[in-house]
Specification:
By secondary structure, the chain is an alpha/beta fold. The chain is about 30% helix and about 15% strand. It has two domains: about 5-215, Rossmann fold, CATH 3.40.50; about 315-435, no CATH class. It has 16 helices and 15 strands. Strands 6-5-3-2-1-8-10-9 form an eight-stranded mixed β-sheet, sandwiched between helices. A hairpin with a 6-residue loop joins strand 12 and strand 13 (about 375-380). Helix 8 (about 240-250) packs across helix 9 and helix 8 (about 240-250) crosses helix 10 (about 275-280). The radius of gyration is 25 Å and the shape is globular. The termini are far apart. The structure holds iron/sulfur cluster. Iron/sulfur cluster binds near residues 133, 134, 235 and 236.
Length: about 450
Amino acid sequence: MPAPDLASYDRFVVAFSGGKDSIACLLTLLDSGVSPSRIDCYHHDVDGAGPGFMDWPCTTAYCRAVTKALDVPLYLSWREGGFLREMLRDGTPTAPIRFQTPEGLLQQVGGTGQPGTRLRFPQVTANLNQRWCSAYLKIDCMAVLIRAQDRFLGRRTLILTGERAEESAARAHYATFEPDRTDTRDGTRKRRHVDHWRPVHALAERAVWEMMQRHGIVPAPAYRLGWSRLSCIACIFGGNDQWATIRHIAPERFEEIADYEDRFDRTIHRTMAVRARADRGRPYVAAIEQPGLARAAMRSTWADPVRVPPARLATTGRCLRSQPRPELTGRSSSRHLSHQRRIAAMRSGTSYTVTRERDGSYRLHCCLPPVPRIVAVIAPVRDRANQVLGWKLKPLVVMHGARNRLWNAPDEAITATKLMTPGQAKAAVRAAELAAGPTP
Ligand code: SF4
């Protein structure tokens, strides 16, 4: 699908969430030579400019900082009362939508529809009637702000959104370019020509991260804390690890959501409450190790730089999430790997072996000649009471498949390296424990 002729449009409206894909939409326009004066970024505030409930408190401030750094105006739009008010609707109409305009006005539309009742969270489905948050808190906001502003009448407008085919089967079917739902080019009364372009639809995640890096854009804190997307912090699509991380960094927020599940007697996930899901998950290592960043992400202000020289950012998306660098400790150098252990490893059918260190961590050693060496450190992550929350894997060489998460046991982390089978990893850990003696 060829790109639309950008020179033929009068205005460009970017749905700007602050996530990497929406930033890539904006950068695509700027890279194509579109003047910032012809661009409006609209951020749909999921929590309705009210107290935080589902979304990251810092997101609006981060969006302001990025658009300011790129010299593009940012406007907000929201459904009054946001997610919480819509969810708690009980025999009342859906709330009006408000949006800011370039003239500095705050306009309001709707709020007088049919009464209705929700009293439940959106459901995890592609159906937007049941997953009502996307429709009511984002899609409707964009449609209303286009229809309600006469400045779009008699002109050609291009709306840009950041869905990518790679994200889901449903998104793969989205058209890259089509007339927008607000288009009335063939109407008889109010005519507006509005097209909808998804410029990153065909891009791989890596290409989007590279675009961010080229422009030196520091990713939103959510990515650096382990989230794969800048969605709501408590997005209904979150997995067990994500719920465990929310409980770790924002316990009050977590409990508020869990209490609503109890009250509605319906959970977000069809079969499991968020408390049970958090119990089954493990907090992201990046969130545990960066409590300062987690606290900053839960504030509604943002003071850190959002644009830096590109060389300061790592070259791949995963690295942009500021993974802590593993460090070697002197004591467990490969010189300590005994000849007998190497022989034992070879006999057990693997080229790797494991040692346990005095600090309670494990080392995964490659025994292959000519240079035996440590290839990974498996370290315990502890809470304030010094209880082990899980085990993190710190690769010291490139390891595809090693992921930024906590593992229940050291052998699970070792298995994640794909250098040992689960059985080999279990046996190697057991052997390391026997050799090292009682746990320190
Ligand atoms: S990010 Fe998740 S919870 Fe938030 S509006 Fe989108 S689908 Fe709903």
